[in-house]
């Protein structure tokens, strides 16, 4: 049995399914509040033995701190962002320090902070959304080998996707890439640290926000994660070959803002299309005029006789047309409507420059035989 | 550490502390007690507790200490009143396994119970790091911190634990 298999089996077998139920936690929280107010009485009850144990623990904590992973503050400092370092040190920052193993790696989510103007390095999108979220994640190998340094050839060969994902939102549409994200990466003492940033996610605190990590790509992978459209939950695909895991971001629900969240999502999911440039408009009207002529059965140029050939079909049933160095593969339904005969204007591919423009035309006869041909456009039909 | 930060710890680490307590005690009732006692002990010690250090390791070390104290008392009570014996059979871990969803039940219940039993029979020295690593999801450094032993010792104990578990697996499923 491989070590990895054993690791996996032990993790499964020994992971406790037992969880504290809500009422237990609530009653515990009440008790904590009560006891906190009885400081004096309890401090006197502390036994000497326990004090000594605490003292020992505190001593070893300080010794341990030196070899511990860097804090988000230190990581931000490493990237020369003193402003962000202070933000990670502030009361608004959430210190998480949770680790999970997946694939060959151990991932630690160190901390997260959100707000406006937190970083010395402004992202271009801050003009639109001034509030941003920053998080620090570290990655180390489970076998103890160091992560390749940024100067190493091996660096970046295993890319990682690290992104907040929002419960109830399709993760391939709402992730660090679409949320104006960016990241910095550094390898210090064999540990890779990644500082990610994107538009502020605290507004989604009441919906639930994950921090997803997967290996194999810098982008969201449908292989690594599954989205349950019914519940809005995102799950790790257990069969994924690389590393894949999810942390729940412990954001303060008080920071949730339904209105802001909705308006943000609306803009993100339905971006207003950019106005086409004059050049694009001209090109479009040229193509439209060509299509109109084809539709009306007008000649648009001279056909290269040799190029008239019956199309072939590939395994998927697509139409394949090849002439010299030109080749086109098109889905039949995209080319002809049912029952349509003659030349089609539904797909028009034109290429060329200067005075010579060629178009690929497709024709279907009454017997359903489809032929392709290359037409050299008449000069009057060239773009203006 | 203030009260709010402590309450935050319940939310943040409650699940792994509870899971760890369950492995130690093997039943829900004792787990609920140990879990609560651990946090309430942390209330007393909160001045020594620093959020930026390692509160999870600290909480786990409290849980271990409380559990050991409790066992010592129980053993002493049993000596004077043997009828109040600890029902080992009823305390076997695994009664929660049936709550796993079908997707999670990759390991057969049999295999899981077998491994759980093997783990629970290990000596405390080896068992504690094993649970801390696999159940409470702690790093070697965190375990070293909580147990007050060097990281190298934790590694070697984990190695011994894995070796034993591997033997269990290889003997029972060739």
Short descriptors:
heterodimer, A: 384 residues, alpha+beta, Immunoglobulin-like, 3 domains, 19 strands, B: 174 residues, mainly alpha, Arc Repressor Mutant, subunit A
Report on the architecture of this protein:
The complex is a heterodimer of chains A (384) and B (174). With 384 residues, chain A is α+β, with helices and mostly antiparallel strands. In chain A, 26% of the residues lie in helices and 30% in strands. Chain A is built from nine helices and 19 strands. In chain A, the strands form five sheets. In chain A, strands 11, 12, 16, 17, 18 and 19 form a six-stranded antiparallel sheet that branches. In chain A, helix 5 packs antiparallel against helix 6. By secondary structure, chain B is mainly α. At the A-B interface, helix 1, helix 2, helix 3, helix 4 and strand 1 of A face helix 1, helix 2, helix 3, helix 4 and helix 5 of B. Chain A: Keywords: Membrane, Transmembrane, Transmembrane helix. Chain A: This is DUF4179 domain-containing protein. Chain A: It comes from Paenibacillus montaniterrae.
